[in-house]
């Protein structure tokens, strides 16, 4: 597969991922306009825990599938991984349902708003189970290079989720007010969050149903010897994933509730809501990162079979960083526009964390790109060590900074941890799988993007819009556009030859 083909697949995967993420993205202002602050905080807390459960439920089998499908009989790998996930998901789901009462009556259950609402817990468990069962079918489509079907199924699931959100939260209350007794009235915020979980469960359930024709064609044979090799490869990825989630979502799930001063649970829920709402503004970078990973991971494993793949990886990294820098500036320079997304003025005070989280996600994206060295060399245990180091660092920094700086401390800790994770992975990787990354250019592009934002921010605070840097005024918008255009011009001059080789845009560059 060439870089052009990778770019083409990334566009397809990116479009599906961006469309699905954007659809979910615009559910956030919908929720902010409907839910109370405490209810939005409860929901954010629940969705911060779900990635941890997804890692346990899939236990690295998706990445193992990619690795061994190129080495072993593809049909055997597909059948073995699917049967493994099916049996483990059923077992874990049954166990979680048995543990329902102690979980919902715990401190964590109360913070998540599950106490007294056992049905909410059931929806969440089934949602996670459906997602786990679709992991291998989605991976199969990626390996086979079928991005259109991949996109269609993913978007269909999201549209289903959105439909039921609108039905339960908008249409049902109106029908109930008109005297229809067959619909829920949803008078309280707790009722509303429950139907949000139900909507997500139905969307994931439909996604699984759409995969049934594909799943039925699987060769249902389990190879114990192959499974042992896959598990040996995959299990360290659980540690990698879990430790990574400590940095990515544990701030909302545990650090903020535990380390914020005071015992007022409602106040803590509101801080989680404030932090989570502004965290969503960094999603444009994470959308691109996820889209890139979906297209790049199969490519990296295939490219490893060719001659001198390291040069290709270095080139990809450079283009990847350039796109991340543009997205960082696109969001951070126009925060006075993006604040419309938050709808409720209460949430505006948290926008100061957005540039920090954008930068954090840039470092995370680069780290994901760097991890290819230990996946290709079967040193997945190294990845576990790296993420464990940063998980410990995340605990220490949040323990130190949240009591002092509140939710800003959580954002700053996230950025520092991702930076350390990125640097350690790079240094370690160069020892075992040297890749000639264009380090001076990468540092220049990132550093210049950060300087561009902070110079604009200082100018905005002192001259353009003193007193309210997020005010929506023509002059700050015009100056922000000038800064963005100047950065784009610099990158274009530096990488003109590279852009000329790109699909779609290359033909317009001479």
From TrEMBL:
It is found in: Cell membrane. The keyword Membrane applies. It comes from the Bacteria. It is a multi-pass membrane protein. The keyword Transmembrane helix applies. It holds the Pfam family Polysacc_synt. The chain crosses the membrane at residues 12-34, 46-65, 77-100, 120-139, 151-171, 194-212, 233-255, 275-295, 316-335, 347-370, 382-401, 407-429, 441-459, 471-492. Its main location: membrane. Keywords: Cell membrane, Membrane, Transmembrane, Transmembrane helix. InterPro entries: Poly_Biosynth_Transport (IPR050833), Polysacc_synth (IPR002797). One of its GO terms (cellular component) is plasma membrane. This is Polysaccharide biosynthesis C-terminal domain-containing protein. It comes from Chitinophaga oryzae.
């Amino acid at each position: 597969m060439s870089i052009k083909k990778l770019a083409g697949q990334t566009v397809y995967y990116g479009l599906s991922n961006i469309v699905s993420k954007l659809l979910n993205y615009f559910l956030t202002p919908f929720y902010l306009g409907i839910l109370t602050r405490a209810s939005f905080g409860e929901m954010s807390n629940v969705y911060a825990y779900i990635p941890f459960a997804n890692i346990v439920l899939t236990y690295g089998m998706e990445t193992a599938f990619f690795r061994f499908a190129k080495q072993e009989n593809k049909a055997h790998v597909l059948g073995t991984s699917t049967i493994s996930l099916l049996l483990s998901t059923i077992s874990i789901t049954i166990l979680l349902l048995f543990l329902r009462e102690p979980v919902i009556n715990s401190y964590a259950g109360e913070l998540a708003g599950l106490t007294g609402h056992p049905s909410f817990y059931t929806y969440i468990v089934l949602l996670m189970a459906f997602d786990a069962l679709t992991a291998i079918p989605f991976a199969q489509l990626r390996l086979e290079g079928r991005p259109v079907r991949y996109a269609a199924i993913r978007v269909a699931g999201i549209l289903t989720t959105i439909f039921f959100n609108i039905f339960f939260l908008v249409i049902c209350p109106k029908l109930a007010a008109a005297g229809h007794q067959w619909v829920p009235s949803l008078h309280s915020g707790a009722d509303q969050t429950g139907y949000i979980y139900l909507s997500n469960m139905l969307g994931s359930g439909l996604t699984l149903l759409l995969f049934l024709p594909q799943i039925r064609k699987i060769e249902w044979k389990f190879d114990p010897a192959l499974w042992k090799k896959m598990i040996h490869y995959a299990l360290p990825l659980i540690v990698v994933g879990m430790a990574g989630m400590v940095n990515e979502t544990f701030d909302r799930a545990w650090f903020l509730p535990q380390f914020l001063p005071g015992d007022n649970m409602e106040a803590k829920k509101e801080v989680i809501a404030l932090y989570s709402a502004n965290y969503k503004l960094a999603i444009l970078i994470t959308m691109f990162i996820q889209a890139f990973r979906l297209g790049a991971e199969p490519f990296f494993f295939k490219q490893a079979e060719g001659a001198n793949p390291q040069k290709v990886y270095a080139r990809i990294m450079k283009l990847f960083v350039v796109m991340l820098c543009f997205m960082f500036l696109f969001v951070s320079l126009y925060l006075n526009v993006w604040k419309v997304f938050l709808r409720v003025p209460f949430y505006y005070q948290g926008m100061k964390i957005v540039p920090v989280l954008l930068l954090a996600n840039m470092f995370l994206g680069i780290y994901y790109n760097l991890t290819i060295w230990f996946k290709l060399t079967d040193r997945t245990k190294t990845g576990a060590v790296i993420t464990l180091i940063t998980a410990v660092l995340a605990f220490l920094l949040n323990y130190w900074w949240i009591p002092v700086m509140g939710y800003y401390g959580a954002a700053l800790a996230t950025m520092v941890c991702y930076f350390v994770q990125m640097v350690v992975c790079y240094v370690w990787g160069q020892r075992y799988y040297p890749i000639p990354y264009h380090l001076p250019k990468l540092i220049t592009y990132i550093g210049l993007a950060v300087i561009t934002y902070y110079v604009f921010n200082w100018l905005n605070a002192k001259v353009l819009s003193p007193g309210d840097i997020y005010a929506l005024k023509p002059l700050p918008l015009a100056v922000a556009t000038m800064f963005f255009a100047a950065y784009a011009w610099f990158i274009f001059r530096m990488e003109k030859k590279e852009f000329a080789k790109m699909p779609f845009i290359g033909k317009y560059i001479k």
